[in-house]
């Protein structure tokens, strides 16, 4: 069908028809790639802003721990008995459900 449209445009055809396919590609990229990524980033930022002590979380590296203290951009996690780790807030990917 698209080939038929381009064949009809020809040398004397409308330039709007020639721009239809690239415009269609941009729209598809927006709805299937850009928009979902922006939505995930907003959800991640909302989760980080709502982070509180006592939550069990997972980091980018797969480390599971319990939040014991939050100091600005640094979070202290209890990963085992008497074993603490300090990580950046941005490295926490989600709440552990397991």
Kindly list the characteristics that best describe this protein.
2 domains; SH3 type barrels; single chain; 98 residues; five-stranded antiparallel sheet
Describe the structure.
By secondary structure, the chain is of the alpha+beta class. It has two domains: 1-50; 52-98, Roll (SH3 type barrels). The chain is 44% helix and 30% strand. It is built from two helices and five strands. The chain has helices spanning 2-9, 15-49; strands at residues 56-59, 64-71, 74-80, 83-88, 92-95. A five-stranded antiparallel sheet has the order 4-3-2-1-5, covered by helices on one side. α1 packs across α2. The longest helix is centred in the first third of the chain and has 35 residues, at 15-49. The chain starts with a helix and ends with a strand.
């Amino acid at each position: 069908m698209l080939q038929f449209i381009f064949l009809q445009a020809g040398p004397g055809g409308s330039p709007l028809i020639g721009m239809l396919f690239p415009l269609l590609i941009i729209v598809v990229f927006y709805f299937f790639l850009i928009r979902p990524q922006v939505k995930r980033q907003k959800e991640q930022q909302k989760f980080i802003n709502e982070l509180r002590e006592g939550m069990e979380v997972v980091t980018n590296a797969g480390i599971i721990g319990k939040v014991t203290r939050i100091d600005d951009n640094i979070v202290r996690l209890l990963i085992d008995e008497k074993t603490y780790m300090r990580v950046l807030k941005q490295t926490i990917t989600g709440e552990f459900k397991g």
